[in-house]
């Protein structure tokens, strides 16, 4: 079930009426082989809403700071897909230019492994993928599976022969010691 990602945003007019913003399809960005749709984001801190006072989207940095949010759709290609030709270091630099803040969390010596200071709510809507934790434990994620990722070290592996689509809401958090 492949689908086009569209974005519908509501707002409040200065007079308090609820209104729709312009509806549009989102253009995906491709970074490191991923197809990323940056749907919406809010500034760090406490989001605000109100008549005529709703801020524009804040999609970057990719991972929000404490209290910030990001709403993204990610299509993971199969791991068996041919990697793009070219210099891997340039691919990482290009991904960082296009999706600021994305690549800095990944461990160079353990491909795919990363840790973020966020609580991530993820829903698999198409395909399948494996979520691996730092001790090698894995869970098979299929459509309808909801994942609550709470700042742990992890990696995503698409071992199937087709793309997997995940929808995420990232909420920036403060990491405590211990």
Give the helix/strand layout:
Layout: E1 6-7, E2 10-12, E3 18-20, E4 24-25, E5 29-31, E6 34-42, E7 69-76, H1 88-98, E8 118-126, E9 129-133, E10 138-141, E11 146-150, E12 154-157, E13 164-172
Antiparallel strand pairs: 1-4, 2-3, 5-6, 6-7, 7-13, 8-11, 8-13, 9-10, 9-12
The overall strand count is 13
CATH architectural category:
Sandwich
Low-confidence stretches: none
Taken from the alpha-carbon principal axes, the silhouette is globular
Count of the domains: 1
Q: How many angstroms does the end-to-end distance come to?
A: 42 Å
CATH topology-level fold name: Jelly Rolls
CATH superfamily: Jelly Rolls
* Mean pLDDT figure: 91
Helical proportion, percent range: under 10%
Question: What is the percentage of strand-forming residues?
Answer: 35-45%
Mind summarizing the main beta sheet? 6 strands, antiparallel
Radius of gyration: 17 Å
Count of separate DSSP helical elements:
1
CATH class term: Mainly Beta
Biggest sheet: strand arrangement: 5-6-7-13-8-11
The topology string of helices and strands comes to EEEEEEEHEEEEEE
> What class do helices, strands and sheet pairing give?
mainly beta
Pfam family, one: Cupin_2
Organism: Pseudonocardia sediminis
Protein name: Cupin type-2 domain-containing protein
InterPro entries: Cupin_2 (IPR013096), OryJ/VirC-like (IPR047142), RmlC-like_jellyroll (IPR014710), RmlC_Cupin_sf (IPR011051)
């Amino acid at each position: 079930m492949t689908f086009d990602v569209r974005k519908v945003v509501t707002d409040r007019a200065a007079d308090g009426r609820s209104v729709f913003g312009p509806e549009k399809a989102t253009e995906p960005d491709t970074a490191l082989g991923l197809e990323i749709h940056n749907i919406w984001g809010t500034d760090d801190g406490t989001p605000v809403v109100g008549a005529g006072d709703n801020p524009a989207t804040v999609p970057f940095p990719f991972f929000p700071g404490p209290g910030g949010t990001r709403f993204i759709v990610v299509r993971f290609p199969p791991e068996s897909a041919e990697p793009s030709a070219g210099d891997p270091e340039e691919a990482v630099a290009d991904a960082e230019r296009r999706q600021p803040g994305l690549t800095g969390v990944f461990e160079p010596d353990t491909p795919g492994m990363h840790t973020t200071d966020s609580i991530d709510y993820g829903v698999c809507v198409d395909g399948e993928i494996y979520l691996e934790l730092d001790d090698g434990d894995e869970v098979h994620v299929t459509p309808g599976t909801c994942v609550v990722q709470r700042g742990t070290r992890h990696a995503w592996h698409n071992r199937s022969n087709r793309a997997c689509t995940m929808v995420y809401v990232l909420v920036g958090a403060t990491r405590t010691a211990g």
